[in-house]
Structures are given as C-alpha cells and as structure tokens.
Amino acid sequence: MSVRRLADEAVQPKSFAFLPENEIWAQQVIEKYPEGRQYSAVIPLLMRAQEQEGWVTRAAIEYVAKMLDMPLIRVLEVATFYTQFQLAPVGTRAHVQVCGTTPCMLRGAGDLIEVCKRKINSEPFHTNESGTLSWEEVECQGACVNAPMIMIFKDTYEDLTPERLEEIIDAFEAGRGDEIEPGPQNGRHYSAPSSGFTSLADESAIIRYPDSGSEVRQRGASGEEGAQVPPSRAGRPRTGAMETDSAIESPSPVKVSGNGEKRAGVEPPAEDPLKADQVAEETELDQRTRHHSDAPRTENPELRSPELTKAKASAEQELGPESPERDAASAPAQSAEDRPKGIERPDRPDDLTLIAGVDPKTAAILNDLGIYTYAQIAAWTKAECDWVDGYLRFEGRIERDEWVKQAEVLDRGGPAEYERVFGKKPR
User: Fold this and answer.
1) Which end of the chain is more exposed for a tag (fewer CB within 10 A), N or C?
2) Higher pLDDT, 291 or 387
3) How much of the chain is in helix, strand and coil states, percent to nearest 5?
4) pTM check: above 0.90
5) Residue 144 Cα to chain centre, angstroms
6) Rounded Cα–Cα distance for residues 179 and 81 (Å)
C-alpha cells in the first residue's frame, strides 16, 4: 500500500464545522452506540465530512476527534488507512474512480484510464485546470459481470467503452451529470446476460406437469387445468424414468419381482397422490419405530415397550411366519429375571453417551429398557450386565469397556472426576 499523507498546508482550510443538518445527523449516529463505544462512529462521521467538503481536511479530522473525545492520532490512523477517504482536494463536479482489478482490466479498463489521463489530468489525484474533475485507479467495486466500470461519488457506470466514458466526463464537466443514468451503459438489465435472458425464458417445460405445484391447480401450456397435489409431492413430475419409480424407493411400499412385475399378493401402489403419500409416511413411521429390531427379544410382553412390540410385529409381517430369520430375531437369549430394573424417565436423565462404548443409538435403546441414570448402571450385577450385553449383542463389550466402573465414577463426580480417574475426558 502506498503511503497516504494529508494534503499540503497550503490547501488546508483553517476550520471545519458540520452544517446544522449534518450536526444533527452526527449526534444521532453517536447515540446509536453504547456508552464507552462512541469511537465506533468515527468512520460514518468522516464520510459525512467528506460528502460535505468533497474531501477529508485536517480541520475535519480534528473536529471529529474532538466531537468523539477521541485521540487525534486514532482518527488520523482511520483517515489515512481507508482509501475511501480523499485526503486532498478532488474534482468539484466529478471524481472518477476507475476499477483496475483483473476482470475490468481484461475488459478494457486500461483504455478507460487513458481517457482519464487525456480528458482530466495525466496524473491521478490531480484535478483538471478548472478544478472540476479528478480521477484515480481503485480496486474491485463489485460489478465484475459488468466490467469495465467506474464510480463517480456513489454511483457506478458499467459496461463502458472509451467513447461512452468520454461522453460521461463531458456531461459532468458541463454540470449535466444528473442526466446520465447510472448502471450498465449498453442497455443490459442490471447483471443479466448481455445477450438477453437465458434462464426461465420458456416456462412450458416446467408447467406441463400437473404435479409441479403446491395445493394449487396448475395450468399446462395449452391452458388445461391440472390435478391438485399435496405439498409433499410438489415439484415431483411424473417422468416414467426408473430413477423416480416408487417401487425402488427405500423403504418402498411396493414389492416388485426381478422382471419388474408386481409380486403376487401385494397391493399395487395407489394412483391417488394423496394416498401414495399416506402409504409412504406410514412406511417411514414403521422404519423409525423399528428400533434395534435385529436384537434378541424377550417373550414376556410386559417387559417390552410399545416401540419394541411394534417393531417385533413389523419384523414378523416382513419376514413371514416360516422365516428362520424371524425365529432368530424373536428368540429369547436371557432370563427375564436377569433384566435390569427400569425406572420412569426422570426430569433430567443422565447423558449416557459420556460412557465409552455408548453411542446415541445405544443410549436410546437403554432408555427403552428404562435405563436413564449412571446410578442404575453402576448398580448392575454380573448377571444384569450379561443380560444387557446379550440383548445388545455386544459380545462382552460391556465388561471390556467397564461400563459399571465408568458409570460409578460419573455418578460420583461427573466429567471432572472421570478425567481424574481415567486420565481423559469423557467423549
């Protein structure tokens, strides 16, 4: 960054003061900040001073410092750091800022700079003979799609050619700058493609499907009225492609054979979108409630939660009465007497996932068994540990990971005690 210094004393005014309306505005800005944070108003106040005088004078810097009760050096640091502040007089009618960053440079910013050198002054930050115009090269101003571009005060002029820039400079020099429309100078609509719109130019491709709406009746390209669809089906056109076939969704309410035909004895999918959605939602609910359905089950219905009972019924329905997998899934592995005694869910259950070896899914299964606290696990007997280990099919992991000891430590002193005993934080 080049060194930025205040203008020569010969051009510095003797004093500065905000105009009455600007003084009121400045006080309102200062009041926006909490007590002790008024320094944060330094940038907007310097910008308002620049807008009033055309550039930031030494007197304006001193005035803002006194107004904010801020050390002068701090205000000087802000004014000389940010290039948005002009530290020397600029053109009274126009100060042209030419973007010289890569997109604009590739699109002809160099030619625009040559125009400024020829029409205004050969050097940046110097005014023309009448003092009405000046120019500088700046970094990106955010209209790269419309390169090349310039900014005059707060307005941008984009998609420029050297000839068009000459016309703009002449207009400002003559005092007719307000007649120039800001924005693209080639007829482009903002940052839209210069060749015209290319997206959504023809809506017939998206309105021909009756399903592409949400609880409204769509009209196709020919004007016919489409079918009403629920929000969950909106935007899902019927393409007939294999990828969108409901028979291969997971889980799918439709069972098909290898050749794509529907399996005998299975109800075909409903044609009505509302009914199809209901079937899909019921199937998804079954999947959510089939919690750890591949684990061994006790045959005593009183020991099963409603979720486990429903999962067992769902497994029996899917696998069939003669399936060996169904028998293995429902066969009891332990005696009911060895099952740990559950409790009602407390208001603040312990975070069982702090026990090494208990992930969120396992913690949810333990909650289904009525296990919610460290104290319950810390009190497990060997038989109860074996029962839970078999129920979860952990093959001895509970003993290897020392669940009982971990739970006893967490119950006694929480994570801090756990770290002291085991030398590491609970996960």
Assistant:
1) N
2) 387
3) 45, 5, 50
4) no
5) 24
6) 34
For residues 156 and 259, give the distance between their C-alpha atoms in angstroms, rounded to a whole number: 64
SS3 97: strand
Q: How far apart, in whole angstroms, are the C-alpha atoms of residue 417 and residue 414?
A: 6
Helix (H) or strand (E) holding 184: strand 183-184
Q: What are phi and psi of 42, to 5 degrees?
A: -65, -40
R_g of the chain computed on alpha carbons = 38
Sheet holding 149-152, edge to edge: 133-138, 94-99, 149-152, 155-158, 183-184
Spatial distance between the Cα atoms of 69 and 75, rounded to a whole number of angstroms: 11
| Best CA proximity match to 56, nearest among 23, 84, 34 | 84
**Is the predicted pLDDT of residue 103 greater than 80, yes or no?**
yes
Q: Is 99 helix (H, G, I), strand (E, B) or coil?
A: strand
pLDDT score of 424? 87
How far is C-alpha 307 from the chain's CA centre? 36
The tokens for 341 are 């005694």
Predicted local distance difference test score (pLDDT) of residue 2: 64
Please tell me the distance from the alpha carbon of residue 68 to that of residue 60, in angstroms, as a whole number: 12
pLDDT tens digits for range 310-356: 555 554 454 444 333 433 344 345 678 889 989 999 999 999 999 99
Spatial distance between the Cα atoms of 53 and 108, rounded to a whole number of angstroms:
32
For tokens 């003061």, what's the residue? 17
Average pLDDT over residues 237-249: 62
Other Cβ atoms less than 10 A from the Cβ of 232: the count is 14
Distances (CA, A) of 94 to 24, 125, 151, 159: 27, 12, 10, 19
Torsion of CA 192, 198, 199, 205, to 10 degrees: 160
Phi, psi for residue 107 in degrees, rounded to 5: -100, 10
Q: Could you tell me where the beta strands, DSSP code E, fall in 67-115?
A: 94-99
DSSP codes joined into one string, 193-237: -TT---SSS-THHHHSSTTSSSSS--B-TT--B-----GGGTT--
User: How far apart are the C-alpha atoms of 100 and 125, rounded to whole Å?
Assistant: 15
CB 26 within 8 A of CB 16: no
Q: What distances in angstroms separate CA 331 from CA 327, 360, 393, one per listed residue?
A: 6, 25, 13
- Calpha distance 395→305 (Å, rounded): 24
- Longest C-alpha distance within the chain, in Å? 104
Q: For the chain, how many residues are written? A: 427
